[in-house]
Amino acid sequence: xxxxxxxxxxxxxxxxxxxxxxxxxxxxxxxxxxxxxxxxxxxxxxxxxxxxxxxxxxxxxxxxxxxxxxxxxxxxxxxxxxxxxxxxxxxxxxxxxxxxxxxxxxxxxxx
Amino acid sequence: xxxxxxxxxxxxxxxxxxxxxxxxxxxxxxxxxxxxxxxxxxxxxxxxxxxxxxxxxxxxxxxxxxxxxxxxxxxxxxxxxxxxxxxxxxxxxxxxxxxxxxxxxxxxxxx
Lengths: 111, 111
Fold this sequence. Notes:
2 copies of one chain form a homodimer. The first copy, chain A, has helices at 10-39, 45-65, 74-82, 96-107. By secondary structure, chain A is mostly helical.
């Protein structure tokens, strides 16, 4: 299975990178909206520390997921499809074989 | 100089603890108001990470300052007076000598 950019064609790499960029924009925009909403409900210091914990956790998760040093992989694309930051329809330009792997992984209950 | 509870009378300790409690409430209430205001201006992910950094820093500072394992000290009281979370008028029940030390430290430009 193609799991990193070394094994991807240049075209596939480019498609995957664009898809990741799109997913990143969606996920971070959703986080901005969520934090606006959460922040409006803050009334005491424990709410502030809870928000702080939540932001630390989301930052760790987002930074790790979209780390630019990480190669695009079918696993990451599948994760983003599963999390609904991408749709399979947005990956139609990948080779049918790669797309099928992403689709299969995204459906897997063990992923 | 009296710098920890071992050297304070029980009455002075109690006065200092009540003053710290008051300062903590003021400082954390001010932080809640500040975060409400900052959060309402969040429009992009970089604002979120800036808020996250700010909260980490404030939490570190507040947790350290009011750490219950730490003994009350003239240094902490002076710091709180300098930061305007306490006034010297609220420390009139301390012995004149302790209060004078707090006042002197709070005025010091090197503190």
